[in-house]
Amino acid sequence: MVTTVPYSKEHKQQTRQLILSQAYRLFSSKGFSSVTIDEVMQACSLTRGAFYAHFESKSQLYKEALTFSAFNTALAERKPEDIPAKAWLSHLLDQYLSVAHVSGERPCPLAFLATDVVSRDSGAKAAYTYTYQNMNKVIWHYAQNEVSCTEQDILGLTSMIVGAVAVARNIEDRRLVERILTSCRQQARLILGGI
Amino acid sequence: MVTTVPYSKEHKQQTRQLILSQAYRLFSSKGFSSVTIDEVMQACSLTRGAFYAHFESKSQLYKEALTFSAFNTALAERKPEDIPAKAWLSHLLDQYLSVAHVSGERPCPLAFLATDVVSRDSGAKAAYTYTYQNMNKVIWHYAQNEVSCTEQDILGLTSMIVGAVAVARNIEDRRLVERILTSCRQQARLILGGI
DNA sequence: GTCTATATTGGGATAGAC
DNA sequence: GTCTATCCCAATATAGAC
Predict the structure, then answer these.
(1) What average pLDDT does the segment B146-168 reach?
(2) More exposed terminus of chain B, fewer Cβ within 10 Å: N or C?
């Protein structure tokens, strides 16, 4: 019941982080219901029983993994000092609207869990909303004073890039996926008004 | 094993359509895994056992329900003769980008099942892709010759409206939802270039 | 075609040893 | 904290009567 000698506090923290990262990887690719706790723990080279020393339930894991992911997304990365805001924003957009992202590289929870969060509890929805607001904040941070659009216009931009990635994941025709991403890269520039 | 007297062929067809419509209603609101066959059949006032006289499996039902929905979406509605193409397109956009739609009224499968289809089989993905292509075709049909954008630009537009609805469903803050929808209605007009 | 069982599996969660 | 073993419920699918 109580943590004893052979496992240090750091070890528990590390294990917890490992579980969160593997859980997010699996949840983002398959959704809540299709992921089993056994699967998550096996990915961590642990057994199912050990799970409950870290989390109360699968639902709690989901919520925490969602929050965890918000800090590991590409958008959370700090801009290198020597790159201008406009160039960095352009880079972020291209990265988001890339085949690599659609294929699951550093998946954005907003796109990958878009319809999965709906059936979860309010906590998960709150985490989703927070991440969405944060995405808008980050983009506006780089865009403001540089482009000719309002803060409200950013909401349309983020809807578009999230939607593009979410839709593209279901499309097996590679050519169509490319066309969607290309169109959105263009429209994003149109909305921002010159970057 | 074989259909006998007390149930006519039309009766079977009617039952089948009822199952499809109830299934789509449930799938679109909760996703594949969270819907049970029992639930679908209860919504039809039938029992679980009867299901297998109509479909082979839950997966097949999902795929067929997805295809079925494509023919019942608001976008599939015919334009009344006396309404100009531009006005009709404008009406379709406003309807798509409405709180009512986000709340589940005549749900568009592209938005409501955006991340749910990913884990399904190729048949489901093909149905999704077909529906997406069709949405683009319909919008382009009304837009062409009326607006100043290319067919490729429509892909960005549809990504945006699908994304907006998918994202908004997870947000409990009504005010934020309104702001997202408003922004997208504006950006949609911007992309179309004057409607 | 629809019903009432029932077979069977998968997976969340707990118990107790180490 | 992690393991193995187990409980237990939910849900897909089938069998057989009507």
Answers:
(1) 97
(2) N
If pLDDT is split at 50, 70 and 90, which confidence band does A6 have?
Answer: low
Whether residue B1 has pLDDT greater than 50: no
Looking at the domain covering A9-68, what would its CATH class be? mainly alpha
For the domain spanning B9-66, the CATH number is: 1.10.10.60
Residues of chain B with C-beta less than 8 angstroms from the C-beta of A167: 110, 114, 132, 158-159, 162-163
Domain spanning A74-192: CATH superfamily: Tetracycline Repressor, domain 2 (1.10.357.10)
pLDDT at A3 over 80: no
d(CA A33, CA A27): 9
Q: Where in chain B is the domain with CATH 1.10.357.10?
A: 74-192
Helices A174-192, B174-192: axis angle to 10 degrees equals 100
The per-residue pLDDT of chain A, averaged, comes to 95
Contact A119 B31 (CB under 8 A): yes
pTM of the predicted protein model: 0.96
Closest to A164 in 3D by CA, of A92, A129, A114: A114
Residue span(s) of chain A under CATH 1.10.10.60 come to 9-68
Asked whether the predicted pLDDT for residue A195 surpasses 80, the reply is no
Residues 6+ apart with CB under 8 A from A49: none
The pLDDT assigned to A1 comes to 45
Please report, for residues A107, A122, B59, the alpha-carbon distance to residue A126 in angstroms, rounded to integers and kept in the order given: 19, 6, 31
Contact B62, B120 (CB under 8 A): yes
pLDDT, tens digit (0-9, with 9 covering 90-100), for B140-149: 999 999 999 9
Close Cβ partners of A54 (under 8 Å, ≥ 6 residues apart): A12, A15, A16, A19
As given in the structure block, the two tokens for residue B15 are 């039952």
User: Rounded to an integer, what distance in angstroms lies between the CA atom of residue B159 and that of residue B153?
Assistant: 10
Q: In percent, how much of chain B has pLDDT > 70?
A: 96
What is the per-residue pLDDT for B6? Answer: 62
A56: nt with nearest C1' to CA: C13
Q: Which residue has the tokens 């193409």?
A: B85
- Please give the C-alpha separations between residue A104 and each of A24, A175, B45, B118, in angstroms, as whole numbers: 12, 18, 41, 12
